[in-house]
Amino acid sequence: MVGSAVPVTEKLRVNQVVSENTHQVVVRGSASVPDPKPPVEKILSTDKTAKIKKIELVPNKAIVEGTLTLQIVYVAFEPAQSVHSMHAQLPFTTFVDLPGAQPGMDTRGKVTVEDISVSPHHGNPLKLDVAAVLSVFVKVTEMRDIDVVTQCPSGATCETERLTVSNVVASETRQVIVSDDFDVPQDKPAVEKILDVNATAEITGTRLIKDKVIVDGTVTVQVLYVAALPEQPVHQLHRSFRFSDFVEVPGATPDMDVRVDAVVENADVEPLQAVCCNRLRADVVLKLTAFVSEPREITVLTRVSGIQVTMVKLRIDHVVGEGAVQVVLRDVFETPDPKPAVEKILSTSVEKTRVTETKIISDKVIIRGYVDVQVVYVAAGSDQPVHAMHRRVHFRTFVEIKGVQSGMDVEVRPVVEFMTASAEGCEVTLELVLKVTVKVSQSLQREVAISVTPAPTPTPICPPGQTISYTVQAGDTFWSIAQKYNTDVNAIINANPGKTPENLLPGDVISVPCVAKG
């Protein structure tokens, strides 16, 4: 490609990838069968999920803390061989080597359960031995403003490439306090003293309006406390509650992309003063950081010859493609025991929308997930009490995106656009319209041109002792011509009788005597 006279540049604000890496970790531990569940004879199935709770950057390394959550279905060790289920959590801590990473940079992480083994503990059927293989991925980025050359300069030969990048329009941070008053669960004793509080936050939904990002999320607090009993045993309880807030981001519009990170900066749980130890108040300080971006296609120069240019290594997430699909979900079910039958439905609301699995095949992304719905209704009884029930609706769909391949990064955003519920007899019918938006990207590393160094003006050739012919250019004077050829003004005037500074015109051909050196 041969270029234009003036180099053209465009400014990009991108999340430059500093480092990324994957580390495998083996998590081993034991889970106790909770009282009053019977002991275990045989494991039937294990549903497993892993979640990252915290990523802390130290120089060239990330410390990752997370939780492995298990839902285990088993046959009881008793004559009736009844089937039961139990819930267990195992914490894990590991590190990922990330050359170049420094505290304060942005991080994104993902953990996948690659394999798991759960078996009854030898000699103790009330314990289970757990061994899991986790794959922990961490990417470190830093926001940078880069001016890239987009057109080949004049006199150069260039190789170009067309990239689609997520150009960061703006990013803003806001600190918020979310609070919740709640009762100690009935199966737990009252609280005498709080020993420790651990809190995590999860963003469940984002919505863009002009100059603002609306954020929905869930905070989960785990409380370790001394019970108000004579023997003062130590107990643990957890509480999850939802929050909704916003971050002002000037320049944001509804059609842009948004990512929000939530970091727990502080968490306190205290008994309410007016109620004796059975009612608690949680106050959690969150730092919400919103990144608003939009896809942008840009041409970059990856190789330039013929002139001097400054190249820089651009390491970014290149957007391979985007797509969306609408899915209609219909679920018919009976009211769960011991809930009464429905006479009239008052309201429906979405509690959580989650993607549980994504899989890339050639030119297609397969998505699995679920929507948790709450239905508030009037019961079919003489006193017509109001009840609420919860229902999980699973979905499976796919989005076609040309060029996607296994191993690329997938970002999925499911949004419930419409929902309705109706009841007839003992049956409740839920209908939802779900929009699933998918963006596929891959890490890309390229050397790109960011500036052009002007070529030095060559010194005109004027052999000493000779006289050359020169064509006058616009703006030339005898003095400027003498400076160009390092000669004397009077020598040029004497060599061109009849030509004066007043009648020197562009296009005239004059003689220029070259000064002999030495």
TrEMBL record:
InterPro entries, per the entry: LysM, LysM_dom_sf, SipL_SPOCS_dom
Top-level taxon in the UniProt lineage: Bacteria
Domain LysM: 468-512
Signal sequence annotation: none
SUPFAM superfamilies: LysM domain
PROSITE patterns: LYSM (PS51782)
PANTHER family with a match to the protein in the record: LYSM DOMAIN-CONTAINING GPI-ANCHORED PROTEIN 2, MEMBRANE-BOUND LYTIC MUREIN TRANSGLYCOSYLASE D
Protein name per the record: DUF3794 domain-containing protein
Gene source species: Desulfofundulus thermobenzoicus
